[in-house]
From TrEMBL:
Lineage, top ranks: Bacteria, Bacillati, Actinomycetota, Actinomycetes, Propionibacteriales
GO molecular function: hydrolase activity
Keywords for the protein's UniProt record, in alphabetical order: Hydrolase
Protein name: Alpha/beta fold hydrolase
Domain of life: Bacteria
GO cellular component, one term: membrane
InterPro entries (alphabetical): AB_hydrolase_1, AB_hydrolase_fold, AB_hydrolase_sf
Organism: Nocardioides mangrovicus
Amino acid sequence: MPRQCGQSSGPIIRRSTGLSSYAVSLVSERIGQLFVDGCRLEYTEYGGARGGDDRWVVLLHGQLMTRRMHQPLARALAEAGNHVVALDLLGHGRSDRPDDPLVYSMTAFGEQVLALLDHLGADEAVVGGTSLGANVSLEVAAAAPDRVRALVLEMPVLDNALDACLVAFSPLMFAARYLPLTVSAVRRVTHAVPRGLVPFWAGIVLDTLGQRPGPMAATMHGLLFGRIAPGARIRESLEMPALVVGHPRDPIHPAADAAMLAEEMPNATFVEARSIVEWALRPDRLTEIAAAFLDEVWSGDAPSQARSVRST
């Protein structure tokens, strides 16, 4: 990746943010940063109440979103004994946001995750994410299968989603590039709303809407005109356990893509969500499934063949 961010690869700064009371037991949270080709990336590290130093889990956000979207899940998985790290990929959240579309690609994002594992000293991790984060997780698994213990993939974007993605995201890219005042105006409005006064997921929506036109256009250009995910033959070769979550009635993330991916991967479990927003608004069922899957993965009892869990 070209050096575009104007950052030096100086010392890593890590600071404690205290303790969270999200779960029954307190879960420590620490903010950290690393530099990849001069660009600064920020992450939050969640420590489990039962330790979990070797049970690394990396969570990756969706397109234009931030790592904060995974805060509830990260806290729950950390409380279950995992060492969870949520990363802001380049161009997102509190990480650097260069204007050059050449620095954005699925493969570049995958390299950033591997750099994060190196920075943390983690030989292997469970890697997972939502939408963009699911596709980046596949890239990590394809590039370094020995570093990926398992995958947790929510709403992967594959063949069946391409048309809907072009329809949904092309106008946003056009607006950011040719009508930047519209994006800046939305940013000013969203930044005026105190996050502490709105529900958690309303705050996530506001964060997503608070884009800068240059980086937004560059990010979407780099992704729309690059490789979306590893090809089918590569996906079929990924033998690590995988939990694949599909949403019904989601045009941008059709459940057919999730089901297809689960069929392609030899050791995948397909889970059908009850709705698009189940994991956001009623997370208990899917979080329990994910936590149980991680227990199986780290104990060595993960499923050795594909299976399906349907919503009820």
